[in-house]
From TrEMBL, chain A:
Species whose genome carries this gene: Thiothrix fructosivorans
Pfam families: SoxZ (PF08770)
Protein encoded by which gene: soxZ
Transmembrane segments: none
Domain Sulphur oxidation protein SoxZ, first and last residues per copy: 6-99
Protein name: Thiosulfate oxidation carrier complex protein SoxZ
Top-level taxon of the source organism: Bacteria
NCBIfam families (UniProt xref): SoxZ_true
TrEMBL record, chain B:
One Pfam entry name: SoxY
PROSITE patterns registered for this protein in UniProt: TAT
Signal sequence range: 1-32
Name used for this protein in its record: Thiosulfate oxidation carrier protein SoxY
InterPro entries: SoxY, SoxY_sf, Sulphur_oxidation_SoxY, TAT_signal
Ig-like SoxY domain mapped to chain residues: 54-149
The entry's keywords: Signal
Keyword Signal attached: yes
Length: 102, 151
């Protein structure tokens, strides 16, 4: 099961890409309420979005991005493009999702 | 655990040097990463680590709530009207580590990105757009009633 909800929709000359990822996005600065110990950092660091073989957006994130992060942007594209989003977190875990532009 | 950190460090370093030799990254970009902009504790340090000295500009627009009831989820949209914008960064000057995100625009990407960020307390959301060798900035205050960094 992928942890990413990815949607890509044509809006005029552009394609609007919206993504919702499931991830705790721990900053490493928060304390566990029960134990009082710091919760280790665990957040998405790198994101790459491609359309076909073109890279349309890359992002570097820190722990200040909200839990279950949301990302939206547009690019010049058309229906039928294959949009793929991949992330890597600070523990080296990865996930990716792909969708057809509708 | 130490070994793992060491390995990751080596891997990251070799990946970065590969990217440099392949001409994918300019040395200044690598410097910025090596400077640990995401670890910087103040806005000034983050800007130093990113090697940016942005000028204030009305071309940079920030869409964020004036009052955020929940600092854990603050929706932010940044639009850059500066021609040739290649990079958009979002920072929060009141957070323990101000740099939240840097977006690098690829082929055909519009200079507008939306995401959701955490804010520990009432502070300014600072947006920086990089266009060529120039950078532009704008800020907007968001009042936070419940902080988002405690939990």
């Amino acid at each position: 099961m992928s942890s990413i909800k990815l949607k890509a929709k044509v809006e005029g000359d552009n394609v609007e890409v919206k993504a919702l990822m499931t991830h705790p996005m721990e900053t490493g600065q928060r304390k566990d309420k029960k134990t009082g110990e710091l919760v280790p950092a665990h957040f998405i660091q790198d994101i790459t979005v491609t359309a076909g073989d073109k890279t349309i957006l890359t992002a570097k994130w820190g722990g200040s991005v909200s839990k279950n992060p949301y990302l939206a942007f547009s690019y010049k594209g058309k229906a039928g493009d294959k949009v793929k989003l991949a992330w890597t977190d600070n523990k080296g875990e990865k996930d990716a999702a792909e969708t057809d532009v509708a | 655990m130490k070994r793992r950190t060491f390995l990751q460090g080596t891997l990251a370093a070799s990946a970065a040097s590969l990217a440099v030799s392949a001409g994918l990254l300019t040395p200044s970009m690598v410097m910025a990463e090596g400077g640990g902009a995401f670890d910087a504790k103040t806005l000034d340090d983050a800007l130093k680590a990113m090697a940016l000295t942005p000028t204030e500009s009305a071309d940079i627009k920030i869409k964020a709530p004036e009052i955020a009831e929940n600092g854990a989820v603050v929706p932010v949209t940044v639009t850059s009207g500066a021609a040739g914008t290649t990079e958009i960064s979002i920072l929060v000057d009141g957070n323990p580590t101000p740099l939240a995100a840097t977006f690098t625009l690829g082929e055909g990407a519009q200079p507008e990105v939306s995401t959701r960020i955490k804010m520990g307390k009432t502070a300014n959301v600072v947006a920086i757009a990089k266009a060529g060798d120039k950078s532009f900035t704008a800020k907007q205050e968001v009042k936070v009633t419940i902080g988002g960094c405690g939990g």
